[in-house]
Design brief:
Rossmann fold; transcription regulation; Arc Repressor Mutant, subunit A; Sig_transdc_resp-reg_receiver; DNA-binding; 13% strand; alpha/beta; 52% helix; phosphoprotein; single chain; 215 residues
Length: 215
Amino acid sequence: MSKIKVLLADDQELILESLHIVLSMEEDLEVVGLAKNGQEAIECCEQSPPDVVLMDINMPVMDGVAATARIKERFPTIQIIMLTSYREVEYVVAALSHGAEGYLLKAIHPKDLAAGIRVVHAGGTLITQEMASKMVKKMSNSPAAESNEYGLSPREMSVLHKLASGLRNQDIAEALSLSEGTVKNYVSTIYSKLNVKGRREAARKARDSGIMDSL
């Protein structure tokens, strides 16, 4: 069974080395690169594409959010987990909107960190209910959210329409030229805004409320 290739990006050398040591102890993980800023992370992805990137948010030269946007644009299959030492909603929401698969706090236990990498590599996302709620609140306050009663953005409306048509995340991603991780993030936010738990319920609520008529 092939190992999960991981790229680490953090401007603090101590954290880089600590993460390297911790992850190297996991039999199914392989650290394939170390980057001290966003630009180096992009270069590493060009030279030897990893499966997963652990991306610090605040770094010199280019921050993690900008680097995530560039990497996702050029290498949509590379999965990115944001690392932060504090709960910065603005930055995390921005990274997720660019397609990051989730975020983890740097204080996380090593075993939980490794588990998070495996979850993302398997196609999952790492967004806590608290962060999902904050994303909904932030997006609901944006001008674009005033177009419908649930505060769905134009892009979320597009995803909802495809979802209600029965398309899978992979098909929605192809149709809208997005990464599958980005689609998953949109779907999670749509569920939170509509207060539903699944696709059928979301589609039914969208039709009952008349949202689908505006598409």
